[in-house]
Design goal:
There is one protein chain. This protein is globular. The chain has an eight-stranded mixed sheet with strand order 3-4-2-1-5-6-7-8, sandwiched between helices. By secondary structure, the protein is α/β, with parallel strands linked by helices. The chain has six helices and eight strands.
Amino acid sequence: MGIIGLGVLGRKVADIAKAFDMRVLACERLGGNTTTLASNSHGDHIERVPLDDLLQTVDVLSIHCPLTPRTDSLISTRELSLMKSSALVINTARGAIVDSSALINALETGEISGAGVDVLNLEPPTSDHPLITTKLPTLIVTPHNAWASIESRQRLVHQLADMLDAWQNGEPCNVVNP
C-alpha cells in the first residue's frame, strides 16, 4: 500500500492496510521535510520514499493529500506509466490531483488495473464529465459524500454539544499545542 498524504486520514488507511498485513509506504513530503520514517496512528513506523519509487513499488496507491499548486495533476501520464500493470489507484482527496484523461488512458491501455475515485476535478460534475461518461469496468466513481452518513452527522452534533458545554464552563477544547 502506498499513501500520498500521511495526515489523519492517510494514517487511518495505513492502520487498515497493516491490519491486512500489507507493507505500507508513504510518499516523501513534496517540497518539505524528507524524513525517511513516519508513524501511523498506532505509532508503527512507515517508511517514506520518493514519489517515483513509491509508484513503482505499490500494488495500491491511496491519495489523501491536499490540492495545492504542487499537487495539481501530481498523478498524470508519466506517473501512471511508472506503476505496475496490476496496480490500483484510489483517490479520495481532491479530483485535480489525478489527471482524469491520463487515468482513463491508463485504464484503457492496461497500464494500471483499476481505479476508484470519489472526487472529481469539477464538483458538482457536468453530465459529460469524462470519468462519469466512460464505461470502463475497471473504474468506480462514487459521490464525494461519505461524510454525510447518519453516524457522521450524529458525531458532528455530539462534538458541537461538547464544544458548547466546554464554552459554557469556561474550559478550552480542541487546543492546538505549539
